[in-house]
């Protein structure tokens, strides 16, 4: 087997692998007769506003591990003094015998502790001028042979092209997830983005509004208001994620979320648990001193694309969404942070809900009983 065999395999026989992790694991296995590696490292660049790269490390005895590195982490001394930083700054191939005195990188100590004897890192050039790297280590007493290094060097351009395809897919997925939410992103990636079409399903609908936002905006500068919103939204988003909710959108000082479990009762309980957990966090988080109004309802919605031909929004629509929006203002009127609908109480089979009375909801006939949970 030669380097050309690996190149042909990469470009023709790995197309069914749709994750970088799978490609690297397959490459490590394919390497076995030719190159003795015990560790492979690389970065996947993202379009995420907070994550700089997704760092992948494959080890012969542990398989592959993935870790997100933030923009702040790459400012650390450990990273700045690493071979990876030099590659990003334009360096060519770097080789380091990890167990000798000339090993000038802090990384060498970690590699020696793992039994590595030789380390080599190659830059990988991308089609639009970007660059990343792939690194290899071995635990052979003599380190890498010249023949092994030649093979790794020869396959690098083909490996760059193959991985760049997956990096683009990864970047697209991460960007869609961060701006659309996981559920909507998955629909878009599956091609379900035709305007006017949507999926109908039953879900718990969760609407949260920050109280006193207008006075906050008037009393503080724009940057301070944005910072305060970020603190509040981060607390809320972390809580929603913890209870498997899907954030559809931020609307000024409000959030629209769905809890779409297969079982409607389970969806309701996740939404209620998330609400109580968030209210508890806000009480304890003295930085925010935020007062909120949360409305929860349950019902069938249309989940899909709405908008104009040049600008679409993936969201939920329907009378149940409107109903939820009519519930939320009553939080302020009745001085309670949480209001739940009669339908929600029945679907969740709650026995600890307190009825606040019957009230008229704008646009809906008759009066509706409103509840809260103390």
Structure description:
- The protein is α+β, with helices and mostly antiparallel strands and 374 residues long.
- The chain folds into 2 domains: 3-180, Beta-Lactamase (2-Layer Sandwich); 194-373, Nucleotide cyclase, GGDEF domain (Alpha-Beta Plaits, 2-Layer Sandwich).
- Helix content is 41%, strand content 30%.
- The chain contains 13 helices and 14 strands.
- The chain has helices at residues 3-12, 20-31, 77-80, 83-88, 107-113, 146-180, 182-189, 213-219, 222-242, 264-284, 319-327, 329-334, 342-348; strands at residues 39-45, 51-59, 63-70, 94-96, 118-125, 131-138, 198-210, 246-251, 254-259, 292-308, 311-317, 338-341, 353-360, 367-373.
- The strands form 2 sheets. Strands 7, 8, 9, 10, 11, 12, 13 and 14 form an 8-stranded mixed sheet that branches. The chain has a 6-stranded antiparallel sheet with strand order 3-2-1-6-5-4.
- β8 and β9 form a beta hairpin.
- α1 packs parallel to α6.
- It starts with a helix and ends with a strand.
- The relative contact order is 0.09.
- The mean pLDDT is 86.
Secondary-structure map with pairings?
Blueprint: H1 3-12, H2 20-31, E1 39-45, E2 51-59, E3 63-70, H3 77-80, H4 83-88, E4 94-96, H5 107-113, E5 118-125, E6 131-138, H6 146-180, H7 182-189, E7 198-210, H8 213-219, H9 222-242, E8 246-251, E9 254-259, H10 264-284, E10 292-308, E11 311-317, H11 319-327, H12 329-334, E12 338-341, H13 342-348, E13 353-360, E14 367-373
Parallel strand pairs: 10-12
Antiparallel strand pairs: 1-2, 1-6, 2-3, 4-5, 5-6, 7-9, 7-10, 8-9, 10-11, 12-14, 13-14
Helix pairs in contact: 1-6, 6-7, 9-10
């Amino acid at each position: 087997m030669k380097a050309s065999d690996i190149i042909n395999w990469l470009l023709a026989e790995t197309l069914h692998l749709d994750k970088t992790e799978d490609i690297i694991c397959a490459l490590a296995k394919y390497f076995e007769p030719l190159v003795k590696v015990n560790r492979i490292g690389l970065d996947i660049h993202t379009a995420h506003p907070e994550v700089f790269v997704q760092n992948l490390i494959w080890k012969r005895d542990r398989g592959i591990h993935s870790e997100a590195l933030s923009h702040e982490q790459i400012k650390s001394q450990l990273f700045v003094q690493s071979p990876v930083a030099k590659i990003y700054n334009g360096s060519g191939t770097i080789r380091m015998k990890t167990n000798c005195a000339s090993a000038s990188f802090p990384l060498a100590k970690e590699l020696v502790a793992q039994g590595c004897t030789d380390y080599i890192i190659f830059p990988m050039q991308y089609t639009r001028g970007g660059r990343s790297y792939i690194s290899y280590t071995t635990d052979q007493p003599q380190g890498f042979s010249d023949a092994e290094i030649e093979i790794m060097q020869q396959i690098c351009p083909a490996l760059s092209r193959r991985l760049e395809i997956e990096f683009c897919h990864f970047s697209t997925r991460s960007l869609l997830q961060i701006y659309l939410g996981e559920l909507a992103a998955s629909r878009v990636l599956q091609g379900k983005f035709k305007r006017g079409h949507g999926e109908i399903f039953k879900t718990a609908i969760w609407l949260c509004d920050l109280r006193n936002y207008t006075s906050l905006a008037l009393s503080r500068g724009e940057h301070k208001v944005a910072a305060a919103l970020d603190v509040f939204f981060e607390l809320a988003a972390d809580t929603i994620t913890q209870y498997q909710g899907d954030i559809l959108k931020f609307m000024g000082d409000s959030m629209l979320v769905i809890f779409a479990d297969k079982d409607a009762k389970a969806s309701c309980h996740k939404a209620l648990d998330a609400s109580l957990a968030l209210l508890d966090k806000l009480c304890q988080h003295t930085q925010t001193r935020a007062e909120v109004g949360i409305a929860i309802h349950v019902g069938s919605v249309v989940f899909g694309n709405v908008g104009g031909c040049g600008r679409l929004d993936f969201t939920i629509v329907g009378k149940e969404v409107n109903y939820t929006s009519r519930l939320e203002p009553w939080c302020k009127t009745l001085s309670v942070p949480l209001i739940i609908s009669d339908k929600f109480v029945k679907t969740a089979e709650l026995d600890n809900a307190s009825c606040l009375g019957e009230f008229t909801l704008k646009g809906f006939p008759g009066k509706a009983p409103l509840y809260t949970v103390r």
